[in-house]
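FAQ: What does the model actually see?

It sees only this:
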Amino acid sequence: MTRRSWAFDVTVVAVVLVLGQLEAWYGINATHRQGPHWAEAVAFGIGALALLGRRVRPLGCLVVLVTAYLVEFAVFGSPQGNAVAMAPMVAFYSVGRYHEQHAARWALVAFVVLGAGWIGLDPLNDGPADWLAGTAWLSLWLVAWLAGALVRSRLQNAEQRRAEQTERAARAVAEERNRIARELHDVIGHSVSVMTVQASAVRRRLGPEQLVERQALETVEAVGREALGEMRRMVGVLRQGDDPADREPPPGLSELGRLVQKFRTAGLPVELTVSGPAKPLAPGLDLTAYRLVQEGLTNTLRHAGSPSCAEVSIAYAEECLRLAVRDDGQPAAVPAEGGHGLLGMRERVSVYGGELVAGPRAGGGFELLVTLPLGTP
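And it is asked to produce this:
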C-alpha cells in the first residue's frame, strides 16, 4: 500500500460514505426507504468503512459489507436506491481485481446471497415479476466483479510479458558474454601460440654455453604450451554444440573494406570514412571495434526503414578510438523477441572501459557512437 493508493481509497470511502448518509437521512437518490433512518445510515456506514480494506482483504471487506446489509434488510426490510448498489460494486470489483481466481466462487456466493436477500426482503416486491425486475440491478455487481477480474488478468499478462522480456534480455546478454569470452580466448590463444613459437625459435639460436637462458626459454615454451592447451579446452567449453569451429583468424578494422562491401551487396549503401593516423590496436580491441561496426550495420539493415545511406566513421585520436555508425532511415518496429543487439554491444564496450551512446538523430535516422580507450582501462 502506497500513500497514493491509501489516498485514493480514503477518497472512495469518503464519497461512498457521504452519498450513503445523504440517502439514508434525506432520501437523496433513494427510490424508497425502509425502517428508521439511523438503521440505513449504520448499514451504509459499515459498508463504506469496510472498503478501507478492499486492497488488503478484499474478500473480508465483502463479507463484512454483505453481513451488515443483510442484517439491516432482515430486520427492517431492504431499501431501494443508489447507496444499496455503490459500496457492493466497489467491493465486488476489489475481489475481482485483487484476489486470485480461486476466490471467484466465494464472490459468486456473496453475489447470490446479497442479491437474494435484497430482492427477497424488499416488502414492495410481491411477485415473480418484481423479483425478475430486481435481478437487472444485480447485474451491476456482476459487471463490477468481471471488470476487476479483467483488470487483474491484463496486469498479470503485462507483468508476465515484462518478466519474459527481462529473461530474454538476460539470456541475450549471457549469450553475448559467452561469444565475447570465446573470441577473446581465441585472440589470447593466438598470442600465446606466437609467444611460444618465438621462444622456441630463440632457444634454438642459443649457444651450448648459454645454459641458463636455454632453461628459461624451455620453461616459457612448456608453460606456453600448457596455457595454450588449457585455452583450447576453455574455448571448447564456451562453444555451443552447433557452433562451427573458427578456421579464420579473428577479424579487425583492416577487414572493414570487405565488411562494407558485403553490406553494399546486401542492398545497404555504406560510406566508410577513416580519419587520423592509424595506430596498431591490441588484437582484442581490434576485434571489438570490428564487431561494433558489424553489429551497427546489421541493425541498420534490419531495423532502419528505407535508408538512403549508412555512414561508418573511424577516428584515431591520441588516447582513444572513436566509432560512429549513422543512417537516415525511418525507425521500424522491433520484434518483441529482438532488440538485444545494443545490449551485446554495451557488453563489448564495457570490457574495455569505453562508452556507447545510441539513439535517434536530430535530422532523422539513428546513430551509434562509441569511444574506446587505447590504453588499458
